[in-house]
Amino acid sequence: MVISLQRDRKKKKKGAKRIYSPTKMKILLLLQAGVALSFAGTLPKQFRILGELADEWKDVERTYLSRIIREFYTDRLVSMTENEDGTITAVLTEKGKKRVITFNFSRMEVKVPEVWDGLWHMVIFDIPEKYKTARLSLRDKLLALGFFQCQKSVYIHPFSCADEVDFISNFFEVGRYVRYGVMTHITNEAELLLRFNLKKPI
What we know:
This protein has six helices and nine strands; from the N terminus they run βαββαββαβαββαβα.
């Protein structure tokens, strides 16, 4: 199967295009998970999907897969990385990674590590009143993610969540008013340990 990848020279409308197709979502999620999709050829010439696809890709129709990869490349959701053997692998761009997070926005959750490292992750913000709706939406999302509100605009979480906080603060267009930090110690820590049912690592 041969596909041609070309940059879109048309002017783009502001804002990301929404993706409703479950198959498109699956393709981006597989790329995010590091499931390789390789091609033969050299940019910007035509590409041919190599040999037999891995099991994860087999249920995606080959022609459709080629078209979607071309579309993602045009939208700069994926880039092409050349391998030592001359093949080229599709890789998610930062824009593509953020789009993946968008898919799961309503179900977003902070990943719980097997062992807690004892660090506290803090979000603070001072959002102007004219962005009240965005401020309330951000607050609600932080609480939904399991943050503990220790002061009016100060939220604490025991697990790493910088990417999630960065995304949601920018999603609500108040990123410049939001700060994220990591602490090794906080006063009245016993309250937090009880709140999150954790024990301080020795």
